Amino acid sequence: MTGVEPGLWTTVADVVAAVFLLLGSFLTFTAGVGVLRLPDLLARMHAVTKPQVLGLVLLCCGVVLRVRSWTAVTLLAIVIVFQLLTSPVAAQMVGHRACGRGRPRARTCRCATWTPTPTDGGPLRADGALRRGGRPQREPRGRGAVRAPTRGSAGTP
Amino acid sequence: MIVVAVIATVLIGSAAVLALIRLERGPSVLDRTVAFDVLTTTIVGAVAVEAAWSRRTESIPILAVLSLVGFVGSVAIARFVAREPEQTPPDEQGGER
């Protein structure tokens, strides 16, 4: 199937393929650890993103270097391009729904800066995410305290 | 190469087990969606390792099909969660750690 006589370069390709396979499987293992250990949904999504893109690219490069046929190159290029196109779409939809459900982060993290806007998906505002009292930090108390001295200092000189 | 294949298989298999634990334990539907993404990725990686180990190209279309199915599954679950917002308050208050 390979059509190449064994020699130095096939050995080099096998070694590089082995390194790529090990790196890709290690990234997949990292995703497994992250999705189990990280505390909230957005962190888990962050951990999932790496094997979906970089790990898949490494594994596909390893397969291509190991198999060495144009059919494999074409199919794995299609897989990589398709994954690069669809992974952000799926992650954006899951993250958007998580934010629409009101509390994507754990209680220990107080840095949620997502503020719902009227253009931020109409049907999502009906689910009580804006009326629930679980996120007092959404009150824009920082904006007024920051913008008022800025406006005054801009007008003073 | 057999050592590399065994190490890669062990890493990918343990990642699949961890993703299954999160899939069983996950507080909300979206956590399970994320864990399902990891599980799909591990299956794709396992098929890739098998194809690289045995030097066969018959397994490679399975990679394309699996990436398609994983995308469709996660997007469908996200849409389904958006269509049923009434179940969110008991799900969040009851399940969050």
Task: Summarize it.
By secondary structure, chain A is mainly α. Chain A has four helices and no strands. The termini of chain A are far apart.
Number of helices of chain B: 4
> N-to-C SSE series of chain B?
HHHH
Please give the share of residues in helix of chain A. Answer: 55-70%
Overall pLDDT level of chain B: 81
The N- and C-terminal alpha carbons of chain A lie at a distance of: 77 Å
- Give the total of beta strands of chain A: 0
CATH topology (level 3) name of chain B:
Helix Hairpins
Distance between the termini of chain B: 43 Å
How big a fraction of the residues of chain A is strand? Answer: under 5%
Q: What do you see in this structure?
A:
- The complex is a heterodimer of chains A (157) and B (97).
- Chain A is mainly alpha-helical and 157 residues long.
- Chain A is elongated and about 60 Å long.
- In chain A, helix 1 (8-37) packs antiparallel against helix 2.
- Chain A has a domain at 1-106.
- Chain A is 66% helix and 0% strand.
- Chain B is mostly helical and 97 residues long.
- Chain B has one domain (2-84): Helix Hairpins (Orthogonal Bundle).
- Chain B starts with a helix and ends with a helix.
- Mean pLDDT of chain B is 81; it is low at 84-88 and 90-97.
- Chains A and B meet through helix 1, helix 2 and helix 3 of A and helix 1, helix 2, helix 3 and helix 4 of B.
